[in-house]
Description:
The protein has helices at 12-21, 23-33, 55-63, 80-83, 93-103, 112-132, 142-159, 165-179, 184-191, 204-228, 237-243, 254-285, 287-298, 306-310, 313-325, 358-361, 378-381, 402-419, and strands spanning 37-42, 47-52, 69-70, 139-141, 335-337, 341-343, 346-348, 353-356, 422-424, 432-435, 438-441, 446-449. By secondary structure, the protein is of the alpha+beta class. The chain has one domain: CATH 1.10.630.10. The strands form four sheets. Strands 1-2-8-5-3 form a five-stranded mixed sheet. A three-stranded antiparallel sheet has the order 4-12-9. It has a two-stranded antiparallel ribbon with strand order 6-7. α12 packs across α13 (287-298). The radius of gyration is 22 Å and the shape is globular. The chain starts with 11 loop residues before the first helix and ends with a strand. The model has no long low-confidence stretch (mean pLDDT 87).
Amino acid sequence: MLTAINPIETISLLQQIQWVADPVGYMEKAVRKYPDIFTAKIVGFGGSIVFVNEPQAIQQILTNDRKQFSAPGELNGILKPILGDASVIMLDGDRHKKRRQLVMPSFHGSRMQNYGQLVFEITTKVFKNLDINKTQNRSFTVRDAMQDISLQIILQAVFGLYEGDRCQQLKKLMSQMTELFNSPFTSAALFFPSLQKDFGAWSPWGNFVRQKEQIDKLIYLEIAERRAHPDPSRTDILAMLLSASDEEGKGMTDLELHDELLALLLAGHETTATAMSWALYWIHHLPDIKEKLWQELKSVTDPTDWMSIFRLPYLTAVCNETLRIHPVAMLTFPRVVQEPMELLGYKLESNTIVLGCIYLLHHREELYPNAELFKPERFLDRQFSPYEFMPFGGGVRRCVGEALAQFEMKIVLATILANYDLELAEHKPVKPQRRGVTLAPAGGIKMNLK
């Protein structure tokens, strides 16, 4: 029975509080006792769930046919208040497959070169503003700067919005809304529905609801205007989605477009901003890494050859090691057992919810010796399988924006390193903490612009 799978022996409510308040501590404590698989009772999934971090077992979960495991979108319900229920994240079965086929061409690797100059210009603009608006000690919060960069990039890549009132309103509202869930305490409302009470604009959830309504209104206005005045010369993602149709010739409804765009906006800038922040921390925490990156960047003869920068091996290794040691997403999307089966020698009953634990997978000592050390050389010395290193998830629910996220991360880091001299304002270790459903650096990382 399911209870035989190494259950964490703590009362359910306490487990829920621990999971929300300190997810890393929760996982690390559990894995010390149960290395590969354990049962937990945490919020967001409706009861007991099974955490798995053994690579072959994760592969079995994510790649088997639907007779063994299904991936129902409704189990991602924790995201519904933010994303709605019509985006690719929330769909399942054939609907999920068809939507993914519509969305994926927008993120095809060949399109990345077109974004290179955009990423460079936005990064440069944000850092010039930092220089102009610097405080007396010239310090700034890294994650705030990275969020500014990534939000502008995603607004332009998704909507083609470069300037104007709507662009500024969306930018301001998106920043404000994501900041509502910037700590374990404020994120608790996502995990405990009883906290989702609208007591007016002054209440936390009421504030969120009103900000979300304003964002929804702006997105629907943009969709309506773009439908009314189609422009075949536009290459942004909204333009591609507006012209996309399935095999029956059906395009996306306004609701489907809205939810998809909102998911791309949120998932497309929050996660990348966090990853870039961690990378800058480690690059400046370990001077040898910064020096190696400088030397590698000097080998690029054309600084606007974005694909050459994207392919730099050591820069790639640094980004991969960042995503290994600090995966922004802790877990894969959930799967549900369809019929009784065995996994790692344990019996799983029908309707058991199973999650691949990306964080624990990335910290397995036999895969990554001295896993707590930041060592980019790991990714130069060997190649890891998609189920040993999976910062973007795996299987049919692998992140659709992976190519853009990796490209953006590398070009932003290369631009900063080539043009600005930074140093950490504080040399104390930075710990990951919950930010909504993800992990981000506590305090945002303070740096000085020299």
